[in-house]
């Protein structure tokens, strides 16, 4: 990786722990991506200048690394922090202009051989994987583009086929091809005719006609004033209901007043 060996040679005398080597590698990835280091600490200082090298005192703490970067076109300023947690390094980068935050957690032993800290040819391993993670997950420019693509992809309407929509309502046929089953508006009982004329032979209605419900006819005529056999209990008085048909019923005890009907004590 061009330039990394020169950088490592410049800082190898100050390297005391594997975490230092990881920070050195990440710093060079920032330089490769168009950034220069301004110095250490959270706040700008007088005399800050952009450099490809790591500033003096960059690894003094050993547990917290704080560096500031600026893009080559001076449009972006980054605050870089790396925190040591056991055998891992947690990186956090914030773009001060957009306040966009990126983070990355690295297992140090996956990328650094601790037994060869000062040997450039032996100290690094899996550098391609580490470089890929830094560019995708940590650098704001690359991460921002990836996020925009992902958001655009989420915003695009999904392409469904007709078979993928179980709740899809089928397309209705043109109104010209369907004739509604409406009653004749000129009929006298068009609205509510089944209820107004229950025995007129119309379908539906609220009044049940016992003669049209699929039961066998008993041969009686309701208009004749006669009920089916057994409809009136034996001995009960029952006046026939009208209108009277052609066959008038015979005399009935109720046709004549009972004896003493005008006796109030009866």
Which properties best describe this structure?
alpha+beta; five-stranded antiparallel beta sheet; methylation; acetylation
Description:
It is a single chain. This protein has 266 residues and is an alpha+beta fold. It has a domain at 4-149: Protein Transport Mog1p, Chain A, CATH 3.40.1000.30. It is 22% helix and 14% strand. The chain has helices spanning 4-11, 18-32, 120-123, 127-138, 140-155, 193-196, and strands at residues 35-40, 64-71, 77-85, 88-95, 101-107. The protein has a five-stranded antiparallel β-sheet, with helices on one face. A hairpin with a 2-residue loop joins strand 3 and strand 4 (88-95). Helix 1 (4-11) packs across helix 2 (18-32) and helix 4 crosses helix 5. The longest helix has 16 residues, at 140-155. It is rod-shaped. The termini are far apart. 17% of the residues are buried. The model is unreliable at 142-150 (pLDDT under 50).
